[in-house]
């Protein structure tokens, strides 16, 4: 069963990817996108500490393609539970 925080993180990630023009500039997160992704990271780190290294890499380079891959990986991970 997926936790409420993980579900909220997934919803926020979907929103980031769906409204790309609002949250990305030149394929990397703008300031509004960074605010949203930090909420995602906080939700996930509180519930999935094994994602810490992956999140650290995403914080350094938060580009669309990397965030999209991260989202797909989370979908696969949470589908198994």
What is this structure's SSE topology?
Blueprint lengths: L3 H15 L1 H4 E2 L2 E2 L1 H17 L4 H9 L3 H16 L2
Antiparallel strand pairs: 1-2
Helix pairs in contact: 1-3, 1-5
Would you kindly provide a written description of the structure presented here, covering whatever features stand out?
The protein has 81 residues and is mainly alpha-helical. It has one domain. Helices cover 75% and strands 5% of the residues. It contains 5 helices and 2 strands. It has helices at residues 4-18, 20-23, 31-47, 52-60, 64-79, and strands at residues 24-25, 28-29. The protein has a two-stranded antiparallel ribbon with strand order 1-2. Helix 1 (4-18) packs antiparallel against helix 3. The radius of gyration is 12 Å and the shape is globular.
Top keywords for this entry?
81 residues; mainly alpha; two-stranded antiparallel sheet; 5 helices; 75% helix
Report the biggest beta sheet as strand number plus sense, adding barrel if it closes. 2 strands, antiparallel
Q: Estimate the global geometry from the Cα principal axes.
A: globular
Radius of gyration, whole Å: 12 Å
The tally of beta strands, per DSSP, is: 2
Q: Which structural class do the helices and strands define?
A: mainly alpha
State the order of secondary-structure elements, H for helix, E for strand: HHEEHHH
Total of domains: 1
Ends distance? 6 Å
The mean pLDDT is: 92
| Proportion of strand residues | under 5%
- Uncertain regions: pLDDT < 50 for 5+ in a row? none
Question: Going across the major beta sheet, what is the strand order?
Answer: 1-2
Considering DSSP H and I runs of 4 or more, what fraction of the residues is helical?
Answer: over 70%
Number of continuous helical runs: 5
């Amino acid at each position: 069963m997926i936790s409420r925080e993980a579900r909220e993180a997934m919803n926020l990630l979907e929103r980031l990817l769906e409204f790309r023009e609002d949250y990305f500039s030149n394929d990397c997160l703008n300031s509004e996108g960074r605010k949203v992704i930090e909420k995602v990271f906080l939700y996930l780190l509180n519930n999935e500490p094994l994602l810490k290294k992956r999140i650290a890499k995403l914080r350094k380079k938060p580009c669309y393609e990397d965030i999209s891959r991260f989202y797909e990986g989370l979908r696969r991970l949470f589908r198994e539970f």
